[in-house]
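hey so i finally got around to running the thing on that chain from the lab meeting. sorry it took forever, my laptop kept dying and i had to restart like 3 times. anyway pasting the input first so we r on the same page abt which one it is
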Amino acid sequence: MKRQLQDLILIYYKRKDGQSLTEVEQAIWDQYRKERPANEKVDEELVEIFAFHQQRMQQWEQFREKYKIQVELQQKAVGITKSLSIIVSLLIAASMVMAMGLWWLFIDTPAQTTAAVPEWKTLRTPKGKQERLVLADGSTVSLNAASVLRYPLHFEKGKREVILEEGEAYFEITHKRGEIFTVYCKGEAVEVRGTSFDLSSYDTATIITTLVEGSVRIKLPGRTLLLQPGQQAIVDKQGGISSSAVDTKDVIAWKKGYFSFHNTRLSVIMKELARWYDVEFIFLDPLNDMPFTIVDYPRNEPLEGLLKDMAASRLVFFELNGRKVYIRKGL
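ok and heres what got predicted. didnt touch it at all, straight out
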């Protein structure tokens, strides 16, 4: 409809300036005047309204481009056909409504839009790096090394959801009355309100959820588990779920810049060190399940210093060759 309105305005200006019209333009104008008696006042108001409308549309497009808004514009069903008489009738009706102050109903602007579909982003952290992200609702996410998080730039009303595709993240969720925050991770849904918790899934077969503050509900197909602060839930590759009390300080030590393990299997420790220092650990002796303790070792220290401290226990020896580290049994 805007195209026909533009044509009519151009014809109006050409006539006002004394320019000659083409045969098509003259036919459009004659039909328009035939259907409605001349009314210069209404014509002038129509021109002013159209100019304002054009300016508003330009501002809207600039706004959409600036903020990358993705909306679906919906036009009102006005039954436009190819018949010139129908088009003219609609133009007449539009100009009359405009004169009454209701002109915006007939202009094809984004007067009625669907709710903007959130644009999703992906945050990836390489080995040896961490990132901190503030979500649209004020919640924060600390992302550990070699992790992938998908999140929307804004949340839909009553729907706060993110996806941890891989790795580990520490969530500090802002409380919103009546709204649940959900983190999806490999078939598991973690539902929270105002809560702080750690979610880890480097191993494709295991998902570990550790609650620091608040409450967490873990939802699996046909099962639900509610965690209390200081509890950790582990979902295994068969879909089984178990929970136990843990020292949360060790679990979230990475967020504070430390390595901290107490009687932890050596294979688990080596995987954590491999992600941070971007090296490969190779066991030359069956030491995978040997328990080991590391207390608050700074993550910004070089790997050589950490391996030297571990070897001082005489439980293990290390041989560093490029980006490969060979592990042997100690004395």
